[in-house]
Amino acid sequence: MKLGLKRDEVKLVPYTSEWNREFLTVKQEVINSAHLEGNRIEHIGSTAIMDMDAKPIIDLLIGVDDITSVDASIIKGLQTVGFLRLRVERPGEIVFAKFQDEAYEVKTHYIHLVDYDKELWSNLIFFRDYLNANESAREEYKKLKIAYAERENMKITEYTDLKEPFVKSIYEKRKR
């Protein structure tokens, strides 16, 4: 299994169960270094969805008590296992990445630090679980992703923006 993408690269690879094994390895590293509870660390994103083509980057969701005042020991612990805070500005979320090497060109993992058990946490977990349980939605999302990824000169922000209506439509199902 080869993980990683360069900045602005959009490439999908076929699903592999190795992604879950990698998540479990990194989860244990994070538990040990940042002293977080295991139930507050989840595998999300397309690598956590069965049979889903995905960008070869592992996404971890970590829930904290208050995103506005994260304990410095958590950030230090994440740094200890190679995660660096990114300058990404998203409401209610702090994003970290792990890189392939010291050149910091190829990202292999993301951590999405959010408020535990609040709306964003619940939406991200619901999306993963819904697609894992619903084959037709999973296939629809897979086809959509492949079609967008195959477009000429596709940039990551455009790719993400194009997927957003589908993602939000799944989030809406949680509220019903």
What is this structure's SSE topology?
Blueprint: E1 5-6, H1 18-34, E2 41-44, E3 58-64, H2 72-80, E4 83-85, E5 93-99, E6 106-115, H3 119-133, H4 135-149, H5 156-174
Parallel strand pairs: 3-6
Antiparallel strand pairs: 1-6, 2-3, 4-5, 5-6
Helix pairs in contact: 1-2, 3-4, 3-5, 4-5
Going by CATH, the architecture would be 2-Layer Sandwich
Assembly annotation? single chain
Mean pLDDT: 96
From the spread of the alpha carbons, the general shape counts as globular
| Amount of beta strand | 15-25%
Uncertain residue ranges:
none
Q: Any idea of the CATH topology?
A: Beta Polymerase, domain 2
Name of the CATH class: Alpha Beta
Fourth CATH level, the homologous superfamily: Beta Polymerase, domain 2
The number of helical segments is 5
Number of strands: 6
Search tags:
alpha+beta; Beta Polymerase, domain 2; globular
Short structural description:
This protein is α+β, with helices and mostly antiparallel strands and 176 residues long.
Structural overview:
This protein is α+β, with helices and mostly antiparallel strands and 176 residues long. It has a single domain, classed as Beta Polymerase, domain 2. 43% of the residues lie in helices and 19% in strands. The protein has helices spanning 18-34, 72-80, 119-133, 135-149, 156-174; strands at residues 5-6, 41-44, 58-64, 83-85, 93-99, 106-115. Strands 1, 2, 3, 4, 5 and 6 form a 6-stranded mixed β-sheet that branches. A hairpin with a 6-residue loop joins strand 5 (93-99) and strand 6. 24% of the residues are buried. The model has no long low-confidence stretch (mean pLDDT 96).
